[in-house]
């Protein structure tokens, strides 16, 4: 605990940080709301200009008939699964073993919706067409996460996505996208959001990851689907009297960043290149396919932390505020490129990787 | 539709409004956040100073070991019911036929938690000790709403509340408070929040009704209860990355208004008196026991609306922005006293009731 806290503290004292958009402080909200007309009426239980306009904008952007703003992706995705299960009368869905619903939601899908997941693919790779073809069980819905966050943001080839979509339509299996980071995949796929979404029956996107809002999610699909989703949103306790404190930042940040994901993607490839030149480091994927990747380092967590801390203090540049254990010999952390990267002077960046490489070399020789 | 929209428009153009605190516009949030230090860190998934401090403050105020901030009361209360049902191994709870869970939550309690409610008391009165003693079914939890909103904010005598609490403890029935408007009841009961809460095992309060925040709720109980509630909050999709856009307004508004409820209560009694002097009007309750009451008027909705609209335009004072039908001959609306009432000049208030009475008299003679 002590060591990790100290890395966070050292990170917070650096002048530059390599990943992300900005600090998560109250100023983010203050700045956004300074620019908004105070006379704008609050949304009230899902109605009003502020929520209608953003939902319509996102439906259009995603190429879907309708979209609903949710306080969280957890709520939006469980509800999507429930709607497709109820429609088919089967309480089974398939997803990746490292799916958000499987590892981050305290088993909400089972405990609230009595839905059993079928886990497809191995933990270290994305779901393939062969995995889907090889399924023995009848399912209502297949969930694909684009990109697969827990393995560094990997993506299937686009042709494989199309083949999976085609197969699901033939078999009457609903295809749902966990597109928490959908916009982040578009520069690699060289597609519009609507083109990718056309392969799916329902789509969730987060408004606070690459988009950089405060919290919230969009769930999109056809009008019959979103009509049901709104009923379930009330059941879940997500139909708040006013969601504008999240909707307005989502809208402002979407407009500010929707065309910046190609830049983040190029920066991610550059940064992964710098990491992969260091001793004992490999990124996953080696060449990123979005704005994100994982940094795997051949040192145990307790030996890596003091090194990253020293790098913060010597260079004034923060690489990561935390380290996670992979096993006794290896650790990792996640990097998602955002607005901050472009603010770092090139020589600072060169320097931080020289210092890091030197320290890792010494540590690995010890 | 046309007529009701016009009443709302006329109401929105008045100089003074009798009920509530202020308009629901973006300015509310802007004003509150202007005063906050921008360096304050956002809460992250239920952790951080901003959420800890407010939860601790509310736990202390309610006299409970622990408190959890929720995005909504709908979520908080279903979760309280689920925890008590799981603890007892019985999927039944008892509440009033006009309980929020029964009429405003799209059946979430049944659809998400498979909990069956037992409805106690008649629709037009609060749950009595006799209702509780007369229950035939075994239940895990009894929910009491203080005050009972849908019947104008009625309250049981405090001694009856104590007797119900005593009986439930003896029988191993958990007692939960829907205290959406708990602070509003304290001047009538002449008790502290902690004294009333001591009769209950778990308590929910809203932070945006009398307190006047933007959205959100507090669920309080012992530490084992709130620990479980936090797990369920994640399952429901309520563990947002940051809830500070609701927590900070809740805190600011709690501090600003926690000592004003006696004033609102006195104003409610005065205002109900003015209403009851008018032809064809009776308030429910006749003498309010909180800051709220319902105004029942012996005219059908479609005849009352143009009268209220004309009152708006002639006096510049808005009494209500809507009317609901009771039956073919009677309509009603709800009034909750807040900051606005004290801003209305006395002569304006006298005048609006003279005009209203005159118009009702004419209408009732027609």
Automatic annotation (TrEMBL), chains A, B:
SUPFAM superfamilies: PLP-dependent transferases. The keyword Membrane does not apply. GO terms for biological process: glycine biosynthetic process; L-threonine catabolic process. GO terms for cellular component: cytosol. GO terms for molecular function: L-allo-threonine aldolase activity. InterPro entries: ArAA_b-elim_lyase/Thr_aldolase (IPR001597), PyrdxlP-dep_Trfase (IPR015424), PyrdxlP-dep_Trfase_major (IPR015421), PyrdxlP-dep_Trfase_small (IPR015422). The keyword Heme does not apply. Its cofactor is pyridoxal 5'-phosphate. Residues 43-296 form the Aromatic amino acid beta-eliminating lyase/threonine aldolase domain. Keywords: Pyridoxal phosphate. Belongs to the threonine aldolase family. This is Low specificity L-threonine aldolase.
């Amino acid at each position: 605990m002590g060591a990790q806290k100290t890395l966070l503290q050292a990170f917070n004292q650096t002048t530059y940080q390599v990943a992300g958009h900005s600090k998560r402080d109250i100023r983010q909200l203050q700045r956004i709301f300074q620019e908004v007309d105070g006379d704008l009426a609050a949304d009230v239980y899902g109605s009003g200009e502020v929520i209608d306009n953003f939902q319509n904008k996102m439906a259009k952007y995603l190429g879907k008939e309708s979209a609903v703003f949710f306080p969280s992706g957890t709520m939006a995705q469980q509800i999507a699964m429930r709607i497709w299960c109820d429609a088919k009368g089967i309480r089974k869905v398939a997803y990746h073993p490292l799916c958000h619903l499987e590892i981050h939601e305290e088993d909400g899908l089972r405990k609230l919706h009595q839905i059993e997941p079928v886990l497809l693919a191995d933990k270290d790779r994305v779901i393939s067409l062969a995995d889907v073809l090889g399924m023995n069980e009848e399912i209502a819905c297949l969930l694909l996460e684009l990109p697969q966050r827990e393995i560094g943001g990997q993506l299937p080839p686009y042709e494989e996505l199309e083949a999976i979509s085609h197969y699901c339509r033939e078999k009457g299996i609903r295809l749902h996208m966990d597109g928490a980071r959908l916009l982040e995949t578009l520069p690699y796929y060289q597609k519009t959001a609507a083109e990718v979404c056309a392969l799916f029956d329902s789509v969730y996107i987060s408004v606070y990851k690459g988009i950089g809002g405060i919290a919230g999610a969009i769930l999109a699909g056809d009008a019959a689907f979103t009509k049901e989703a709104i009923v379930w949103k009330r059941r879940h306790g997500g139909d708040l009297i006013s969601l504008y404190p999240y909707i307005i930042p989502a809208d402002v940040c979407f407009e500010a960043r929707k065309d910046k994901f190609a830049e983040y993607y190029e920066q991610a490839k550059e940064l992964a290149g710098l990491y992969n030149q260091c001793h004992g480091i490999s990124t996953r994927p080696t060449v990123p396919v979005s704005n994100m990747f994982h940094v795997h380092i051949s040192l145990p967590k307790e030996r890596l932390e003091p090194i990253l801390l020293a790098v913060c203090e010597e260079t004034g540049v923060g690489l990561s505020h935390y380290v996670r254990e992979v096993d006794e010999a290896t650790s990792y952390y996640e990097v998602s490129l955002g607005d901050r990267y472009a603010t770092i002077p090139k020589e600072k960046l060169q320097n931080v990787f020289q210092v890091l490489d030197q320290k890792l070399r010494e540590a690995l020789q010890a």
